[in-house]
Hints:
This protein is of the alpha/beta class and 231 residues long. It is built from ten helices and eight strands. The protein has an eight-stranded parallel β-barrel with strand order 1-2-3-4-5-6-7-8, surrounded by six helices.
Amino acid sequence: MDWSYADAAKMIDHSLLNPTLTWDELEKGCRLARDYDVASVCILPYALKRCAELLKGSTVKPSTTIGFPHGGHTRAVKVAEARQALADGGEELDAVVNISQVRSGRWDAIQDELRELTEVTHAAGQKIKVIFENCHLVDDQKIRLCVLCGEIGVDWVKTSTGYGSGGATMDDLKLMRKHSPPRVQVKAAGGIRDLDTLLAVRALGVTRCGASKTAEMLDEAKRRLGIVAAR
């Protein structure tokens, strides 16, 4: 094996973004993520403060979304969301780009919004991921976003919300890795449901994946590594 349990687990942002999840399910999801020692929990914004409390003392980071899921919020609203998330203990913010503005070619507005969100997040000592929602974009738009995000200095570029008409594809991940500077990481979201896919995108240079099948993937990782039998 050219990977360890930690290599796999620390790729996973455990997704708790389904709007129908109950409070008990959200808390249970945070505890599951802590037990499996994943990279982060990406949770509904209203539950972020509780998430941060449940993860305190662990290596799992509390995170949430900004402008989710369509990116069409005003810039002021997105910045306010970011400030609230940071105040609630968020350490990583997944912000959806304004898809309409990307498709309209309004690059100055996109740049201004992403720069402000990044500056607010970095000023608090935390990190930001920018979600493209690639299923709605053409390659030239994806490349332009990668270049722009690199110039601004975001921490990750991310394929999708998981709630669009399509999720991460191998072609998109290759394109995003190719056109992003080395300091900008790539996150896959939507369609990462088994360990083999997780390892396949890792081989492309992806460092994070949004996933809800966390237990299944990591139980399989333990089984293959001979750590414990899968439950």
